[in-house]
Design goal:
binds flavin mononucleotide; single chain; NADH Oxidase; alpha+beta
């Protein structure tokens, strides 16, 4: 499908066919496609908990303000972000793997590794959360577009109670919760939404006041 058509076609879908199952292979392919997203220093902090189990869905339902897509989507992805992705060990590992795969030479490897480690060193909690949300947000968008392209519909959800979610699923402090993404076969096309015209959003060589 033409990319602009894909962008126009995607809508947040909240009514799913509860009988539509997504195979592990299909889900694997969608997640692999989403994993092609860019991230700061290629840290790839995204981690996905694939929720299909009905007991898990029932537990998630009240946490997510009873949004029915939690029950009816083929799966709900709980998107987490790994704080340790910004630590030296992971940053060294990814650049070493890239070096071994021929992406660049030793000099570039060492430069990029040291630059990445130095970049995150002064980070406070708010800086870390901002970077994690940004990296994982790009992953989420890719996942939704890959799903749409493959004939699935999605809705991103931050409509849940973080403290209850973390408690209900015993999420370790290492992982920030980013969002839920329901993936399934839409029974009903999501309602149309509007976007502000480009002229309202763009400032040429000017900072908005
Ligand atoms: C960060 C984020 C959180 C959202 N949370 C929810 C949610 O909890 N429940 C829901 O039904 N839709 C949720 N949405 C969907 C938005 O309402 C939707 O994207 C917006 O109205 C535009 O509609 P469209 O996605 O169909 O283009 C969320 C979207 C984003 C980007």
């Amino acid at each position: 499908m033409d990319f602009t058509t894909l962008l126009k076609q995607r809508r947040s879908t909240r009514h799913f066919d509860p009988d539509a199952a997504i195979s592990n292979e299909e889900l694997h392919d969608l997640l692999a496609a989403a994993g092609l997203s860019p991230s700061g220093n290629n840290a790839q902090p995204w981690r996905c908990v694939v929720i299909t189990d009905s007991a898990w869905r029932e537990k998630l339902l009240p946490v997510a303000f009873n949004q029915q897509q939690v029950l009816t989507a083929s799966t709900v992805i709980l998107l987490l972000a790994d704080r340790e992705a910004y630590q030296a060990e992971n940053l060294t590992r990814i650049h070493q793997e890239e070096y071994e795969d021929g992406c660049f030479n030793e000099t570039v490897r060492d430069f990029l590794t040291q630059a990445a480690i130095g970049f995150y060193q002064p980070f406070q909690e708010t800086d870390t959360l901002k970077a994690l949300a940004l990296d994982c947000g790009l992953f989420a968008m890719s996942l939704m577009l890959a799903a749409e392209n493959a004939g699935w519909q999605t809705v991103p959800m931050t409509g849940y109670q973080p403290a209850l979610l973390r408690e209900a699923f015993a999420i370790p402090d290492r992982y920030a919760d980013i969002m839920l993404i329901a993936v399934g076969k839409g029974k009903q096309h999501g309602h149309r939404t509007l976007r502000r015209p480009v002229q309202e959003l763009v400032y040429w060589n000017t900072i908005p006041d």
